[in-house]
Design brief:
One of its GO terms (molecular function) is ATP binding. The chain is built from 19 helices and 19 strands. The chain is α/β, with parallel strands linked by helices. Strand 15 (425-430), helix 15 and strand 16 form a beta-alpha-beta unit.
Length: 537
């Protein structure tokens, strides 16, 4: 390899003394010992000096000093800046827009046309943000740990210790994940150090250059901005597009805000953006009918309780008796706010005596308000394959109790089936989620869904509506504004963003929200993307 030979020549090393052994660079000095450098590359993070107060600034300075203390002599932490060709970026974006328009015009079915219209709108928003912005910049954060030892084995033992200590500090204080550099990245770094080329071989991820006050490293393997992200809206501070990778959806999202602030619009935009990805299927539960108004016709298949008829006394054929019993008891006890044991006794009474048990005094009467869910022949055919297409479950026009129990049954059946299905990624979206947020089935979906590539997005009015287990397992939190001091206090406590954001939350207007990724260090104030259905109304 020419680069190795050039380094050897410059250092006066003999052949074979310098090796690239990812994630390490190894230099042998014979009997004198060995120097091994381990290169770590950070994943995405974004925090701004604009948001510093005296306390947070001191924390970062002290943390950085702590990192330096833990690194051996001659180690380094560096941020590499690379200018992005704005003309290239704009040209690529325009080409993507033109290609999408061609696909839209050539689409034969309504579902494909709607998908392409959604993608075209997202691309147009990105182009609009590009026209308003300044030159874009890509940055990467590198950590190089160097140790001198008598042997390679001894050096790597020391490196394991230092890597663990430094990675723990970065993760704890910065929310920053370090990963080991690949062979190709080590070569690029060496070429950069020898002035052979700029560090511009990685796939660029763009950010406005006025955000250079941010330490803003990006993962080199991140995919194209056009296809990798779900578009949430634009940053209120600099109008840059705010996207989250599809993989983040499998780490769940909680959306909280008072009535009329924009929660449903955000959910509709998420469903629109998710529909662009063929492998990702959405199931949306719409209690009030608002989601259906915001989504373009043909984007999702609309189902009602008339299409999927539930009878609590008769299980779907693909479920065991035990699984069905747990799903029904979970839904009924949560919706009725009743002890599961009492619900189970009522169910057993109905199974033994028939639905007439609901009409008489006794344990069975607790289920009388749900007579309809025992009285009709079941139709479960569509329920078995509900995860294989984009579906909107419309429940408006029914009693609140019926809606809550029915939705609980669907979520329970979905949770039971998703753990065994293959070939699909799913997103469960629930508006007015306070109705079902304490379902055991939903909590289990949030806890386990990530391993099944299943994401849960729930929206509700108050932080107290969301169980602790769901909040702790959701990596994406969105809070709309409110003047209620108690609400703001709960937001600050839930996110850990710091009291300095309290005033900002109180000043947010309609359609504006605070987005926090708990794996990142910086919150984002954003204006939610207006869904297509609302644009056309």
């Amino acid at each position: 390899m020419k680069i190795i030979e050039r380094i050897k020549s410059s250092l006066g090393l003999v052949s074979g003394d310098l090796r690239i052994e990812p994630p390490d660079l190894v230099t042998l000095f014979g009997e004198k010992g060995v120097i091994v450098s381990r290169i770590l590359v950070c994943d995405s993070v974004d925090y701004s000096v604009r948001d510093f107060n005296e306390s947070s600034a001191r924390k970062y300075v002290e943390t950085f000093a702590s990192i330096l203390d833990k690194l051996p002599v001659n180690s380094e932490v560096r941020i590499v800046k690379d200018e992005v060709d704005l003309k290239w970026f704009a040209r690529r974006l325009v080409n993507e827009i033109l290609n999408t328009r061609v696909k839209l015009e050539g689409s034969q079915d309504e579902h494909s046309r709607v998908k392409h219209r959604v993608k075209l709108e997202v691309l147009s928003k990105l182009y609009e943000a590009l026209l308003k912005g300044e030159p874009f910049t890509s940055t990467v954060l590198l950590v190089k740990i160097r140790v001198f030892a008598r042997s390679v084995e001894e050096a790597r033992s020391l490196l394991e210790y230092h890597e663990s200590a430094v990675s723990r500090v970065f993760k704890t204080y910065y929310g920053l994940t370090l990963r080991r550099a690949s062979k190709s990245e080590l070569v690029r770094i060496l070429r950069l150090d020898l002035n052979l080329e700029a560090f511009n071989n990685i796939q660029p991820v763009v950010s406005e250059s006025r955000r250079l006050g941010f330490i803003h490293p990006f993962p080199p393997e991140k995919k194209s901005v056009f296809t990798d992200g779900v578009f949430l809206g634009v940053d209120l501070r600099d109008n840059r597009p705010v996207q989250i990778p599809v993989e983040q959806l499998y780490k769940h999202m909680v959306v909280i805000g008072p009535t009329g602030r924009g929660k449903t619009a955000l959910l509709a935009s998420l469903i629109e953006s998710a529909s662009v990805f063929d492998e990702l299927k959405t199931l949306s539960i719409d209690f009030k009918g608002d989601l259906a108004k915001y989504l373009p016709q043909g984007l999702t298949r609309v189902l009602t309780p008339e299409d999927v008829v539930v009878n609590l006394a008769h299980k779907p054929r693909w479920l065991s008796d035990a699984d069905w019993r747990m799903i029904v008891v979970d839904s009924l006890s949560t919706s009725l706010n009743t002890d599961p044991g009492r619900v189970l006794e009522a169910l057993e009474l109905v199974e033994g005596s028939g639905i007439t048990a609901l009409l008489h005094r006794g344990e069975g009467s607790v289920l009388l308000p749900l007579f309809e869910l025992f009285n009709r022949p079941p139709r479960y055919e569509l329920l078995e394959s509900i995860h294989k297409e984009n579906v909107l479950l419309q429940l408006q026009g029914r009693s609140i109790l019926f809606q809550n129990v029915y939705a609980g049954i669907v979520i329970g059946v979905l949770r039971n089936g998703l753990s065994r299905r293959e070939g699909f990624s799913n997103l469960l979206v629930i508006d007015e989620a306070w109705r079902v947020s304490r379902l055991r089935s939903l909590v289990e979906l949030v806890k386990e869904g990530r391993s099944w590539r299943v994401g849960v997005v729930i929206a509700t009015q108050n932080p107290g509506d969301v169980p602790r287990e769901i909040l702790e397992n959701a990596s994406n939190l969105v809070f709309f504004g409110s003047l209620d001091a108690d609400y703001v206090e709960k937001v600050v406590k839930s996110t850990g963003v710091g009291a300095e954001y309290a005033q900002r939350i109180m000043k947010l207007g309609i359609g504006e929200a605070l987005y926090v990724n708990t794996e990142e260090a910086a919150p984002v104030l954003l204006r939610v993307k207006t869904p297509m259905g609302l644009n056309s109304s």
